[in-house]
Amino acid sequence: MTLSNRTLGVGVVGTGWVAASHVRAIQANPHVRLVRMCGRQETRAREKLARFGADVSDVGFTRRYQDLLDASNIDIVVVATPNHLHAEQAVAAANAKKHILLEKPTGLDIRELVRIRDAVHRAKVRTIVSFVLHYNPFIRFAHWMRKAGWLGTIRYARFQYLSRILSGYPGWSWVRRADSGRSHLLAAGCHAVDAMRWCTGLEPTEVSAYHTKFTKGYQWPTSIVVNVKLGRRAIGQVVSSTDFMMPYTFGVELMGDRATLVDGLILWNDKAVSLAELRRANPFPDVVLREARAADGNPAIRVECDMPASADVRQHPFQGEMDELVHCIRTGCESHLNVFDAQKTMEVCLAADRSAIRGGRPVSLPLIRS
């Protein structure tokens, strides 16, 4: 029986908040079966997963990660552990010929990124990295709108990951530490960097950044502003912070030479964007387009859909990435979010942190030369 017509076994390492979301996505896909969980304390892990909405009462449990890698009935390993464990566990999974769903960040430094890249390249396994906003309706629409030419040539982009994460966060014990969380870009703001790359279709070639620290309890700077050269002529900015007195906000601005998308509003100056034509072209049934007005009273178009508006992972679209990975394994194709693509996002984050440490001195990209 080939991979294309049999149920694929899945093992999950990690038993926290994010792991529970992966479990629900696995259980909702008809082509996979959750075989075993891996964590330190079984009773506590099962209680915690149940509290986060994941029923694993009929799933096996082990304390040894190697058991997942040795199991012949496990084809996919989901790595949902604290950040500093991702690289080592991903490399081990690739060496064991397991397909991988890897939580972000993939690696915390250049050495880890290279090890992941080389291990996956050798093993020729399928991978997907958990930048789940690719499956959010608004981010998908923004990506499509740029790719379909509605915005024209991108001139400027700004993406913001703004939050207020304190001790109530389930991963607080490790995310606030320099050795495991490492930086706000690596721990959280990498979502904004990745969305900028995907939505603009442009690769950063140079970054300069400044950071500072306001919130107590963290071992790393809690706000960073990153200026980005995008491609040959465009520029961009990423703001990543856990300092602001406001609810979680994921800001999106895409400014082209035809039109601009600012969060949920489409704006223009010279030539109006036809609402009727855009409605006919829109490929997403969960995105509704309505007449609107800009702050100055000029015509605009409102985009209505589920927005990236919560830091609660239980509201994030994990199903999309699990379904894509399973499809790629069954059909033998690559995911659009594999570790090779995610490496480029991680390099931007590392370069920005490096620039900020050096007082804003520009850092050229890529950091890793193939």
Taken in chain order, the helices and strands follow as EHEHEHEHEHEHEHHEEEEEEHEEHHE
Q: CATH fold name of the largest domain, please?
A: Dihydrodipicolinate Reductase, domain 2
Which residue ranges are poorly predicted, with pLDDT under 50 across at least 5 consecutive positions? none
Overall mean pLDDT stands at 95
* Share of residues in helices: 25-40%
Tell me the distance between the termini.
37 Å
Provide the CATH superfamily of the largest domain. Dihydrodipicolinate Reductase, domain 2
Radius of gyration: 21 Å
How many distinct helices?
Answer: 11
Spatial order of the strands forming the largest sheet: 14-15-13-12-11-7-10-9-8-16
Instruction: Report the CATH C-level class of the largest domain.
Output: Alpha Beta
What sort of overall outline do the alpha carbons produce when their principal axes are compared? globular
**Coarse structural class:** alpha/beta
Overall CATH architecture of the largest domain? 2-Layer Sandwich
